[in-house]
Amino acid sequence: MNRVTAPWVRTRLRAAPGAAVALAVLVALTACLAAAFPRALDRYTDAGLRQAVERTPVDESSILVTAGPDLDGGVAHTEDSVRPERLTELYRSTLDTVERPLVIDGKRSSYGVRATDTLPSPDEWLPRPDGLPAEMLLAAPHGLADHTRLRSGRLPEVPGGEAGIETTEVQAAVTEETARTLHIEVGSVIHVSAHRDLTVRVTGIVTPEDADSPYWSVDSLLRGPSLRRVPGPMGASNPSYWVGGLLLAPEAAPAVLGATSTVRYWHLTPSPDALHSRDLDGLASAVASLESGPGLERLHATINPLTDVTTGLDAAFTSYEELRGDIGPLVVVAASGAGTVAAVVLLMAGGLAGERRRAELALLRARGASVRGMVGRLLAETAVVAVPAGALGFGTALLVLPGARLLPALWAAAAVTALAALALPLRAAAAHHAVRIHDGRRDVASARASRRRTVAELTVVVLALGAVEMLRRRGATDGAGDLVAVAPVLVGVIAALVLVRLYPLPLRGLARPARRLRGAVGPLALARAGRTSASAVLPLLALLTAFTVAAFGGSVLNGVADARDRAALLSVGADARVEAEAALPAGLAGRLGQAPGVREVTEVGIDYQAKIQDGRQSLPLATVDPGGYAALAGRTGLGAFPAGELGRPDGAGSEGGSGSESDSEGGSGDAVLPALASPAVAERLGSGTFRVRLADGTLATLRIALVRDRTPAVSGDDFLVVDRAGLPAAATRPNVLLLTGGDLDAGAVHRAADGAGTVHLRSEERGGYVDSPLQSGAERIYTAAVAAAAGYAALALLLSLASAAPERAALLARLRTMGLTRAQGRRLLVLESLPQALPAALGGILTGWAAVRLLSPGIDLTTLAVPAATSPAGRAELSADPWSLAVPAVAVLVLAVGVAAVQAWWSGRRGAVTELRAGDAR
Q1: Could you give the CA distance from residue 580 to residue 813 in angstroms, rounded to a whole number?
Q2: pLDDT digits (tens, 9 = 90+) for 508-564
Q3: Rounded CA gap, 70 and 81, in Å?
Q4: Which of 687, 683, 693 is nearest to 612 (CA)?
Q5: What's this model's pTM, rounded to 2 decimal places?
Q6: Burial class for 547, CB neighbours closer than 10 Å (0-12, 13-18, 19+)
Q7: CA distances from 476 to 318, 482, 485, 556, 842 (A)
Q8: pLDDT over 90, % of the chain
């Protein structure tokens, strides 16, 4: 056989342009998705790391290197150790000590000299709130001009260009906030008392370019003054005094050294653009080296042996790593599922193409074509389509998701392209390894599986069962293994293998009874389904795998949404909550009830200082109207109870300071009020009666009649709820309003509240649970996985139907010549498609439900749903989502029936001569 030549490829592409275009679209779409995944992963994990560092306090998100002046070489050597030249030299040396991948942002870093203690000023014109003198912090930071805007005057200088330990007068600048608070003006002279008194002349007032930048975080006094109190006993009225900062020229540092003890500092701020999640281990190692490793040893050798390094980056990296470790395995499960579905569809496309061209390839082998030559031609034919399509998908992913690594995306797109190009050649090589003139029909109803296939299927089943059991025991955590990551897919594979084995049985069993049916459409459709090629069961594998991934991903998203809804409901108690420390205005409930979307307003009075057990314990006591509150608890699902069991008994009342007065307000003070309590409170207080003293001194006798884990009014493990009718009105004035409604207008609720209390909305509380890009990014990946699985399921069905379309069209044309009507032809194609689509749909629903049920013990969605590892609603568990199970299955059925109906309609519009041309390949 001659080598592969271009005319073969051109001839094949011209003969089947539609198949080539379909393959190109499939490869381009799959390559784009495959390349987009690692880039999206990089983007949101990097964003999560940067947010973790940004949320760390500014003084902890940097690396602070401090060292005292050199005192072991004489006065001149000590002075030189704090001069700008030496500090700059050590700054560069410190930067060289920082190990990669940690990169320092030079523009946001700083260094200089500052006093270790504040110094008192005897100047009486400085503010003295309690008669104590103000104190000043002296600092000589480098690069002051680059981080400030001059408001008045000029920046400080050193007359003569150089200062020394003996210098007694220096110049300084102050920030605008310091000048305004401490009444400092340009030209003001401030005296500070120290070892050697120092006179500071203010030459300028400046405004920080970015007051929150790391440059000003060395000490908050540098950007603004602070009112401090003299240490003393708790609760005592300790005197206060002002403390401010004076910004000296870097050349004036030796003068500070002569006045008080000083420290040199180098404040190193990491570059946010250089923080990448993939480098987390290296970043942690670089920080650890500076804190207590080789880096610190080099600093000791370069600066002095007492150099100290402090930072909070290690804590930020640790917290981020814990969050990534909890969320990462869930993302791997989603990616593995979607990737497996895509790979199955690509293999299925190659398999269907090989089946469609079985006669052609068998003829080539019979005429002397070698396996190598045939595979080479087919590879050239598919590669000329797949390679440009893969490059197009890869380029699209690069444009849509910039700012991430190139190589992982390239490898992913190349893998998709290679799989698409090799699927048909490898399938042909396996099917036509031996030369066959005719190998008989391969009907699905009569085909028998080989021993090799049986062994392979059993191996896959054993691996799948092992992965499922491992996931149930160990959970989806780091180190669980790659096999565990594909456990949902393996559940779908098991179901697909079982369905493939069971699929022929009903076809064989119904073949004989179907012959007794009246009419030809039903028996003919069943016979056609049984005579389908055995390779047509490939779509079942793709469909069930896609259904499992879609059901699992949809259930994860639904579980996350439910966990957030539940946590927000527990935190707020209803759809909205208006709360104040004192009693709310009387007409507020009516105004809120008229707000758009509000259906019910429930009034609650909460006393957070109610005392029990002779005043030794306090806990929240909620006074409610039993009827309205019971309805609220029932609607929200937070501790529903019968309203009648909380109502006060006849004659119940309370005790105040005067027995007769109290009796006139509420009845007998000896009557016992039933109470609803949390389990913790019920365990402490028991089933007997007990006394409660409210904040206003009212006494009530209660007995626990109901125990519930939750209640709308109070979030927490300790609470009591009683009927307000059994207590004086003055002690039960509502300070909490709980609002329920279908679609609350947040703006209208805030306007109706009009500042009378703090407004908490359930929707706003829920939105706050998406705290990290890791969470939102993982949700987007799961959404994309569900959409991709559903799309590939539909694509698998379309490919299957399209491969059989020519044969079906020819069949309809032949049957129309025998008198088959258009309606009968439409019913024939629809009934013929159901034996494949209906088992796939039902099997998909059962498989998705089983996968969720089997894997739910090992899946914890808490970290993905809420910021903290512990949720107010407890552990967020995975549960089957009915919509995720039903929608893909119904969509596949509708698609199968719709395509069959459209094909029957289109075939009816074409002439029978076109479909029945002799020698036309079908």
Answers
A1: 79
A2: 666 666 666 666 666 666 666 666 654 555 677 788 888 888 888 888 888 888 888
A3: 6
A4: 693
A5: 0.81
A6: buried
A7: 20, 10, 7, 13, 28
A8: 10
